[in-house]
Write a structure and sequence with these properties.
With 71 residues, the chain is of the alpha+beta class. The protein contains 2 helices and 4 strands. Strands 2-3-1-4 form a 4-stranded antiparallel beta sheet. A hairpin with a 4-residue loop joins strand 2 and strand 3. The two termini are 15 Å apart.
Length: 71
């Protein structure tokens, strides 16, 4: 399953760091953070999707405390 979420990222460098952190979360198949469109795309297995998204968000917050995601 793949979903897009609105987000708030301050700069392109922060977006890249958050994206890398999200990709390391167990269960994340792929993650993309777009600074220009302020969108996050996360792909994970459907049966554990909600838990993986929450874990990915927490990983992003650890990298950049100002990071916000609408889910």
């Amino acid at each position: 399953m793949k979903k897009k979420y609105g987000c708030e990222v301050d700069c392109a460098n922060c977006a890249a760091k958050i994206e890398e952190a999200m990709k390391k979360v167990p269960g994340v198949i792929n993650a993309s953070v777009n600074f220009i469109t302020q969108k996050v795309t996360i792909e994970a297995a459907e049966e554990e999707f909600d838990e993986v998204v929450k874990a990915a968000f927490k990983a992003g917050k650890r990298v950049e405390s100002d990071f916000e995601m609408a889910f």
